[in-house]
Specification:
The protein is mainly alpha-helical. The protein contains five helices and no strands. InterPro entries: ArpU-like.
């Protein structure tokens, strides 16, 4: 596994922000269940034997059960990873990336956590590097994809 010095800052930031984008998407978008089609479909194309049996209702039922669970697990892994951070880093990440309303960095370091821009960026960078390894352990991303030579 690569160490901290091997990580590329821009790749790490992009990967961590992608995790949080997906987190907010899953958190805010309601899951829509799929339904089986009850109308027959006809085709001019002759059917050929594929050796497989398909059961539309079973595959839809599995999706309707598995997908919400997969999303819930993803949300919980992200929350658990953020809880592992030191208090200041955790608050910064929660304010900036985990709340429902969109916030910019400026909003966070001027109102939610009053501090200078440089201090804010330093804390965020440390949090991102920690989260990269935490999220790797939770299998949310691959650290090897974040290295400079990859």
């Amino acid at each position: 596994m690569p160490n901290l010095n091997d990580l590329d800052g821009k790749k790490t930031q992009a990967a961590i922000e992608a995790v949080f984008d997906k987190f907010l998407f899953y958190k805010s978008i309601t899951f829509e269940e799929r339904e089986a089609s009850m109308t027959a479909s006809y085709s001019d194309m002759p059917r050929s034997y594929t050796g497989t049996t398909s059961d539309q209702t079973a595959s839809i039922a599995m999706y309707n059960v598995d997908e919400p669970e997969r999303r819930r697990t993803y949300l919980e892994k992200v929350r658990a990873g953020v809880r592992k951070l030191p208090v200041t880093e955790r608050k910064l990440i929660e304010f900036r990336y985990m709340e429902d309303e969109y916030k910019r960095d400026l909003d966070v370091f001027q109102t939610d956590m009053p501090m200078g821009k440089n201090r804010y960026m330093e804390i965020r960078l440390r949090a991102f590097y920690r989260l990269a390894f935490i999220f790797h352990d939770f299998r949310l991303l691959q650290v090897k994809d974040l290295t400079r030579d990859h």
